[in-house]
Structures are given as C-alpha cells and as structure tokens.
C-alpha cells in the first residue's frame, strides 16, 4: 500500500464523519463513567455506592432488544439513520444538563434514574451511529475508520474527565453539567449535514428485523464457531474495562485534586490517543484486523499493569502522566481492532441489530461485573485488584487462536460474508 493511498483514505470526508460519530458516541458514556462518579465522590457518596452505579448502564447490555426497531422504522423527513441520530442526540443534550438540578446527598435515586435514561439514549445513539458508520465505509476503510471513530470516542473523555472537572473547581455543578451538555452540539450538526446511506434495503417487516439477524449469524458461522465468537467478544475487553471502571475515584483516593486529574491525567492521554488512532489505523491497513487484535491486545494487557505500579508510587504527577499515556495508547489500539472485528462480523443487511448484539455482549463486563469493582477494591486493595484485572484479560487473548488466527485470511472471510 502506497503512502499516497493511505493518506487519501485518512484525509477523506468519511474519516471526518468518523471523528464526529466517535466524539458524539463517547461523550455521554464518559459522563456516566468519569464525571458522575467524580461528582458523587466529591459530594461524599461512598465508594461502594459509586461502584454499584455501574448497574445503571444496563441499556448498553440490552440494546440489541430494541435495535430491530431502529433497523426497521425511519423518522419521517430525516431517514432511517439520520432521524434516530438526531432524536437521541437532542435527548442526550437535555438529560446531561439535567444532572445539575439534583443533590447527591438528597436525590441519589433520582440521579440513578436520570443516569439510566442517559444510558438508554446513549445506547440508542450507539446503535444507529455504528450502523451508519458501517454503511458508509468500504471494506478497505473499515479498520482505519473504526480506529478514527474509537480514538475520537476516547478523546471525548477529555470533556467530562478533564474540562468539566476543572470547571467543577470553579463553578457550581449545575453550570458544569449545562456546559458539558452543549458538547453534544457538534454531533447534532454532523447529523444535519450528512446524507442518508442507501446501500442496502431495510427489513420489510418487524419480524424480519428481529429474527433474521440472529438466524443469519448462526447459519453463516455454525453454532460452535458462533459460540466461540460470542465468548471472545465478551472476554476480550473484560480486564481493561474493570481496571478503568473506578479510575477517577482511584486518582482522587491517591491524593490528586480534580484539577490535577483534569490537566495532567486526562491530557496525558490525548496525544497518545491521537497518535494511536492514526498509526494504529494505518497499521491495521497493513496488518489486517486479525493480526492487529494480537499485537494491540498484548499492549492492552500490559497497560493494565501500569495502574498497579501507580498504586505503589502514589500521588506522583509524572507517574500518573506515564500510566495514563500508555493506557490511552494500549487500550485505544485494542479497542480499535476489537471494534473493527465486530464491524467485520456483521452482515450489511442487518447492521444495526447485529452490531448492537455484539457490542451489547461486550458491554456486559462494564455494566454488571464492574458493579463489583468497589467491593473488590475494599476487600483486596488497589494493587491486588489491578493484578486481578490483568489476569482476567488473558482468556480473551487465548480465544484469538479460535476466532482470529494470526495467519487467517480475514479479508477473504469478509468477502464471503458480504456475499451471504
């Protein structure tokens, strides 16, 4: 592949759209996993309760249930993809701003319900953004486009995890959430400016939208191979998902201020994420998705150990920057390859439902298993907890022998899949 060719792919309009889809998708999730826990911690809510707050994210696990509705029906005047994108994005803007109306000490249940609504509309936005991105990217662009999307997704964490935390040291929380919500506007603008994809026909009936995506997947791979693929999707991100579940409370407990976390920790991850997005995406063009899962997965596993090292060092700003930078690079690369693998596994006729099914399965650890992280830290301590997270990352890597062998012809698999 020539330098001119990959540059033309990287600087295309479709890659710019992937930047906006990634940012719009990542912002509400990082509000749930970074900003809300920091808000609750700073207002005196105990760590165990914050850990159980992960359960409010269950819509990310069950979004495949209503994904067929988004595959089957369109919003009049805007289309099947753009219509749902706009409705979910406007709802997210309002919900994010609404957090500032509540007091964590008095309204914890109300905050939980609001957070669950935010998770529902965020998961719904993910369904349609994933489908839209898959439908506008060619097979050749899939790895690079997914990498750009994933890293823009991670860069979105700088808003709730850095900018908003700094604001919280100077402004009331009500204003912080209002300002944070306004960062949904770039995604809304993107939705209004892009065109509706017309690559495949939508399902003709709701029954077709519900039944056929599951039937097609099982028929194409066979039951045994399908089960291996689903197990891999569940396990590949388990370790790093647990390790980062309580990242902000972890930094606060080490003794860092909210401003230090905002300025040092989160910005230390910006350039490695950008670098990883560009280099990782281009590297995926040459390596292929299968080999990228191996290479990036090893870096991802090793990056988890950085948190254990930080726990031994304590509130050292340089150490914090190093750990976050390596985590942003390693986990970002692993996520990019993983998401590209999921996209490749979908059939273009049932993009939204199959993509939602696979990403829902990947979200199970973040939603349910992560709910135990607060309890685990209290029982084990931070260092042992991060070693446990590292161990839990190994089974997903071992499953690569089954689902993505190093020498497998991944592009041929995709070609066969597209024709099915």
Fold and architecture overview:
Its main location: membrane. It is found in: Membrane. Keywords: Membrane, Transmembrane, Transmembrane helix, Transport. The structure is a single chain. With about 425 residues, the chain is mainly α. About 80% of the residues lie in helices and about 0% in strands. It has helices at about 5-10, 15-40, 45-50, 60, 65-70, 80-100, 110-135, 140-155, 160-170, 175-180, 185-195, 205-220, 225-235, 240-245, 245-255, 260-270, 270-285, 290-315, 315-345, 350-365, 375-380, 380-390, 395-400, 400-405, 410-420. Helix 13 crosses helix 20 (about 350-365) and helix 19 (about 315-345) packs antiparallel against helix 20 (about 350-365).
Quick structural overview:
The chain has 25 helices and no strands. It is an all-alpha fold and 420 residues long. Helix 2 packs across helix 9 (158-168), helix 9 (158-168) packs antiparallel against helix 16 and helix 17 (270-287) runs antiparallel to helix 18 (289-313).
């Amino acid at each position: 592949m020539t330098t001119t060719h990959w540059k033309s792919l990287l600087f295309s309009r479709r890659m710019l759209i992937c930047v906006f889809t990634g940012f719009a998708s990542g912002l509400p999730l990082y509000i749930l996993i970074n900003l809300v826990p920091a808000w609750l911690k700073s207002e005196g809510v105990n760590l165990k309760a914050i850990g159980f707050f992960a359960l409010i994210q269950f819509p990310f696990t069950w979004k495949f249930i209503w994904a067929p509705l988004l595959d089957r029906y369109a919003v009049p005047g805007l289309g099947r993809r753009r219509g749902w994108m706009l409705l979910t994005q406007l709802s997210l803007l309002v919900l994010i701003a609404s957090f500032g109306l509540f007091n964590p000490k008095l309204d914890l249940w109300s905050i939980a319900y609001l957070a669950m609504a935010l998770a529902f509309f965020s998961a719904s936005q993910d369904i349609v953004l994933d489908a839209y991105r898959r439908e506008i990217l060619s097979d050749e662009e899939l790895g690079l486009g997914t990498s750009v999307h994933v890293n823009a997704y991670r860069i979105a964490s700088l808003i709730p995890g850095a900018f908003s935390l700094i604001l919280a040291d100077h402004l009331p929380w009500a204003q912080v959430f209002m300002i944070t919500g306004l960062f949904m506007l770039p995604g809304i603008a993107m939705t209004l400016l892009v065109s509706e994809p017309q690559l495949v026909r939508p399902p003709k009936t709701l029954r077709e939208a519900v039944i056929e995506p599951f039937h097609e997947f099982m028929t194409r791979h066979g039951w045994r191979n399908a089960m291996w693929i689903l197990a891999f999707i569940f396990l590949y991100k388990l370790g790093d998902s647990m390790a980062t579940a309580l990242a902000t409370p972890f930094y606060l407990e080490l003794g860092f201020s909210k401003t230090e976390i905002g300025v040092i920790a989160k910005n230390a991850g910006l350039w490695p994420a950008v670098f990883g997005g560009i280099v990782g995406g281009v590297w995926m063009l040459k390596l292929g998705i299968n080999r990228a899962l191996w290479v990036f997965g090893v870096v991802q596993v090793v990056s988890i150990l950085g948190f254990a090292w930080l726990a031994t060092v304590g509130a050292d700003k340089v150490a914090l920057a190093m750990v976050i930078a390596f985590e942003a690079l390693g986990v970002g690369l692993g996520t990019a390859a993983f998401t590209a693998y999921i996209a490749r596994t979908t059939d273009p006729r049932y993009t939204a439902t199959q993509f939602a099914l696979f990403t829902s399965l990947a979200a199970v650890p973040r939603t349910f298993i992560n709910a135990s992280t607060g309890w685990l830290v209290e029982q084990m301590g931070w260092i042992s907890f991060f070693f446990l997270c590292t161990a839990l990352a190994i089974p997903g890597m071992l499953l690569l022998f089954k689902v993505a062998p190093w020498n497998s012809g991944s592009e041929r698999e995709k070609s066969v899949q597209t024709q099915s």
